[in-house]
Amino acid sequence: MFLVSWFGLVTLWIVGFCLVGEGSKFRHWSNAVFPVASLATIIVLAAAPANYDVVDKTRYAAEFETMSFAEPGEVFDTTVTDGREPAFLLVNWLIGSFTHDADVYFLIVAAFCAIMLTIALWMILGSGWQTAVVLYVTVCFGFFLDYSSFLVRQGLSISFLFLGLALVLRNARVVWILVVLGLGLLFHWSAIAPAIVILVVRLVRLRTDILLGAWVIFSIAYFTGLNARLAGPLGSGIEQIEVYSDSELARSYSGGTNRPIFWLLSAGPLFVAYAAVKRRLAHLPEWYPKLLNAFILLNCYFLALGFVYFSDRLAAFSWSLIPVLVSVPVLRYTGRFHTVLSLALLVAFGAWALYFGSFGTLLNR
C-alpha cells in the first residue's frame, strides 16, 4: 500500500496543477520536480518486481542470467547466428558484468525506460507541470508499466523511438534523430518501420487529411481481413510475419486478430486530436500536427499487420503517444472551462485505470 499512498499524494499535486490559473507560481517548474520524480520512481518500483507470472518476463530473466555469464564474443555470435537484436544483448551483457540478479536487471531497465520517457515528455512539452500531468496520465493508461516490466525488449525500443520523436518535434538535427532511432530499432526489429515513419515525419511535409484517408483505407482492410491477403506475400519473405500469423498461436493468444476493440482504442484518440487540429485551436503548439501525423502513420503500421497474433505489441508504437496526444489540447487550453476539462481528463484516465486494472501493480507494493 506504500505506492498507493505515494501515488495518492502525487494525485493531489496533479489536481492542484489543474485547478490553479496559468499565471500561478504553483506551476513553476521547480514545483514539478517532486511529482515528476515521484511518478518516475513509482513506475520503477511498480514495474520491476511485478509480472514474474508472465512467460515473457521469466524468459527475459533466464536470458539475462545466461548472458550475464557470457563472454563478449558470445554476445555478437548470438546476434549473427540467431538474428537477435544487438543492442538488447549488449545491455544484458553490460548489466550482467556487475550483477547476475534478475531483480536488479529489471530494476535498471525499468529505471532507464522511466527516465527516457520523462526526458522525452519534458522535451516535447517544454513545461514541468504539463510533463507531470502527462506522466500521471501515462501511469493511469497502464501500457508503459507493462512495457517497463515484462515486455522490456520492446519497452527499451519504444523509449528510444519516443525520444527520437521528441527530437523531431523540436526540429533537432537529423543526425541526432538518426542515432536515437537507430538505437531504438537495434533493441527490437519490429521498430524498423516505426523508425522510418518518425524519420519521414521529420523530412517530408505531410498533409493530415491525406494521412487520415489512408488510415480509413487501412481500417477497411483491417475489418475485412484484406490486410492478411495483401500482406500474404510478405509472410513467405519475412519470418516474423509468418511466425506470428501461425494459427497455432491462437492457443496462447485467445483474443484473436483484427480485434475491433484495438481499432476503437486507436480511433478515439485520433479523432479527438484531429478535431483539435481541424478547428485550428490557437492554443495548440506548432508541433502538434506532426505528432498527430506520426500517430496516424504508426497506427497504419498496426492496422496493416492486425491479422497477426499479439498485434497489440505493434499497436504499442502508436498507443504510446496517446497520453500526450489527448492531453495537450486540454492542458494548453486557457478558456473559461480549462479547469473542468483538465479535471475531466484526470477522471477519465483514472476511471480507465480502475476499470482495466492499471493500478494492480501498485496495490501489491
Question: Helices, strands, pairings?
Answer:
Layout: H1 2-19, H2 33-47, H3 55-67, H4 72-82, H5 86-96, H6 102-125, H7 128-141, H8 143-149, H9 152-169, H10 174-185, H11 192-203, H12 208-224, H13 226-230, H14 232-237, H15 239-244, H16 260-278, H17 288-304, H18 312-319, H19 322-331, H20 338-356, H21 360-363
Helix pairs in contact: 1-2, 1-7, 2-6, 2-7, 2-8, 3-5, 3-6, 4-5, 6-7, 6-9, 7-19, 7-20, 8-9, 9-10, 9-11, 10-11, 11-17, 12-17, 16-17, 16-19, 17-18
Pfam families: EpsG
Protein name: EpsG family protein
Organism: Brevibacterium metallidurans
Q: How does this structure look, described?
A:
This protein has helices spanning 2-19, 33-47, 55-67, 72-82, 86-96, 102-125, 128-141, 143-149, 152-169, 174-185, 192-203, 208-224, 226-230, 232-237, 239-244, 260-278, 288-304, 312-319, 322-331, 338-356, 360-363. The chain is an all-alpha fold and 365 residues long. The longest helix is centred in the first third of the chain and has 24 residues, at 102-125. This is EpsG family protein. Keywords: Membrane, Transmembrane, Transmembrane helix. The chain crosses the membrane at residues 28-50, 104-123, 129-145, 175-201, 210-228, 261-279, 291-310, 316-333, 340-363.
